[in-house]
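DM from R.C. (forwarded with permission)

"hey, sorry to bug you on a friday — could you get me a structure for this? deadline for the figure draft is monday and I only need the backbone to look sensible"
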Amino acid sequence: MKFRFNVNITEQDYLNYNSFWMLRSPYGKKQMLTLRLAVTAIFVILIFITCFGFAEGYIADTLLSIIPLGVFLILFHIFLNKLYSVFLRVHMNALKKKGKMGYSPSSIMEFYDDHFVETTVDNKSENKYTAVERISIVGNKMLYIHVNNIMCYMLPFASFENKEQYNDFMSFIKTKCNSIDFYK
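My reply, with the result:
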């Protein structure tokens, strides 16, 4: 075994990960762009129908019906990220009430030469490094090991004993994954 970490994840860490995933990661950015384009296309179609669907000669009525659609579209784009954060909190609270959070508060992560293992109270998962798509390092707080576009292992910087262990781990993990992204 090369490294062993006691990992403790809080509800805020999980919320931060989900916000990061949707708003900053390459995976979520694609989904947000698709959503933005789809909503814009729907509104452009609605505006087009409104322009040509009203009786000819009533330009004032047409403009009065287009303006609210345009304003709503602009507000949608401005507040989409905040709206997502609100829906995420509501969803997490619903999961919490059901007792089925999407993470384990504590685990042990062990890193070997050819694979890594996460052991929780309920589960033990083992992955080869070839399964890792990318690693995201967010500020000096969290390291995300993305196995695919949905599943990720979180390793808080607080899990490292000291800066030297962090540097040793980073040197090690860079040999296992070519795609390492740094975020502020």
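R.C.: lifesaver. The mean pLDDT is 88.
me: no worries. Strands lie at 3-8, 106-111, 115-119, 124-128, 134-138, 142-146, 152-156, 180-183.
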